[in-house]
């Protein structure tokens, strides 16, 4: 019994380390998104850190349009980045969790 608990604790610690490594790796995964017409482009990491914003000169003439573009494109990029991040972290957590009866929150 005690050995089982120690084994589970070791597995949990190993999983925590893998999660941290995955979070660091997600800093290198880039998500590109752009407006439908390509006038605004953004790049962010899977950890949702903005790396680049490219704005076509034509958008600089209309502040309100630029703001709308930024909101739409950034939200789409954040959704994609969140999906990638959650999928990666979920896979690591599910793979690394010990099989504890009644504790199937990652299933």
From TrEMBL:
Binds to DNA and alters its conformation. May be involved in regulation of gene expression, nucleoid organization and DNA protection. The keyword DNA-binding applies. Residues 5-32 form a coiled coil. Keywords: Coiled coil, Cytoplasm, DNA-binding. It comes from Flavobacterium litorale. HAMAP family: DNA_YbaB_EbfC (MF_00274). It holds the Pfam family YbaB_DNA_bd. Homodimer. Belongs to the YbaB/EbfC family. It comes from the Bacteria. This is Nucleoid-associated protein K1I41_08570. It is found in: Cytoplasm, Nucleoid.
């Amino acid at each position: 019994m005690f050995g089982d608990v120690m084994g589970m604790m070791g597995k949990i610690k190993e999983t925590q380390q893998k999660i941290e490594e995955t979070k660091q790796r997600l800093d290198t995964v880039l998500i590109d998104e752009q407006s439908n017409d390509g006038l605004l482009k953004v790049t962010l990491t899977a950890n949702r850190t903005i790396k680049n914003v490219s704005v076509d000169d034509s958008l600089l003439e209309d502040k309100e349009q630029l703001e709308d573009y930024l909101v739409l494109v950034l939200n789409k990029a954040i959704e994609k980045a969140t999906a990638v991040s959650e999928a990666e972290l979920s896979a690591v957590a599910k793979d690394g969790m010990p099989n504890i009866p009644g504790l199937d929150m990652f299933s």
